[in-house]
User: Which sequence fits this backbone?
């Protein structure tokens, strides 16, 4: 962050602005954004999250520009994303860390969501029971259900219970073969599908045939996305913490400046 000559605060470093110029000059680009902690500030109850109105409006503006694809790439399942994101949602939506994908029909990507096998459904039921056993022991620990995963939320638990609940949940599931565990911000997600945002971004790059990808995210699970990006791409970590991203902004409240810069450069 730096001060501008007029006294206002610039959220974007000169290096990021320079990279955005080069990115915006490509004929076809993908702007992919994480939801919680990036488009929306983090809140105690997942159902209360909303994108900042300026961000949502700028995403819509960007998506209407020729050669620009916009996507929300979220750990949420798509139904939950639709409930918290007022229309218009970007036409490309990646949910459940890549396990769910919605794209406009005319893109002919051939993507089809596969139903869970009987074995996967049984595993999902077993891991959900395991997480429920942990959740019931702590006030403020709750579960979120996704088509292929269950999430243990500890944000509303007493600080001293949060780490304990997360550790107990990992222990509870350790003997279940085939479960993918992902630690996020005050969450542990247990999934029966082994996908991640990196795989989803690589697939999107090819399906959309874009020359460059921008991906911004705040959480540990977004690191999978940052790691697959290449020299022509832009990775932006939102907030503090170790990261593989090349650029950083301080918070979701800086995302509008990032998007506005792209809109201006692309026009
Ligand atoms: O990939 P994202 O779009 O960032 O989704 C990641 C997880 O986000 C949600 O949890 C996070 O946000 C909640 C609301 O702000 C917060 O209470 C929680 O502590 C955060 O971890 C969502 O509920 C999860 O399903 C997503 O996987």
Assistant:
């Amino acid at each position: 962050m730096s001060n501008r000559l007029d006294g206002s605060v610039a959220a974007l470093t000169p290096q990021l602005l320079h990279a955005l110029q080069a990115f915006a000059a490509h004929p076809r680009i993908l702007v992919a954004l994480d939801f919680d902690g990036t488009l929306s500030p983090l809140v105690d109850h997942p159902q209360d999250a909303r994108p900042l109105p300026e961000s949502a409006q700028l995403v819509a503006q960007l998506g209407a520009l020729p050669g620009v694809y916009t996507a929300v790439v979220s750990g949420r399942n798509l139904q939950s994303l639709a409930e918290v994101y007022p229309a218009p949602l970007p036409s490309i939506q990646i949910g459940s860390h890549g396990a769910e994908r919605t794209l406009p029909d005319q893109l002919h990507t051939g993507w089809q969501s596969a139903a869970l096998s009987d074995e996967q459904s049984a595993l999902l039921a077993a891991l959900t029971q395991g997480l429920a056993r942990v959740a019931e022991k702590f006030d403020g620990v709750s579960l979120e259900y996704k088509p292929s995963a269950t999430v243990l939320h500890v944000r509303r638990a007493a600080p001293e219970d949060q780490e304990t609940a997360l550790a107990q949940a990992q222990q509870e599931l350790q003997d279940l073969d085939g479960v993918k565990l992902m630690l996020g911000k005050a969450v542990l997600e247990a999934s029966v599908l082994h996908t991640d945002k990196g795989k989803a971004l690589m697939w999107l790059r090819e399906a959309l045939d874009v020359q460059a990808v921008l991906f911004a995210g705040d959480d540990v699970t977004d690191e999978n996305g940052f790691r697959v990006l290449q020299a022509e791409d832009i990775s932006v970590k939102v907030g503090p913490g170790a990261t593989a991203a090349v650029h950083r902004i301080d918070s979701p409240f800086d995302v509008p400046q990032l998007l506005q810069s792209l809109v201006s450069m692309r026009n």
In short: The longest strand covers residues 68-73.
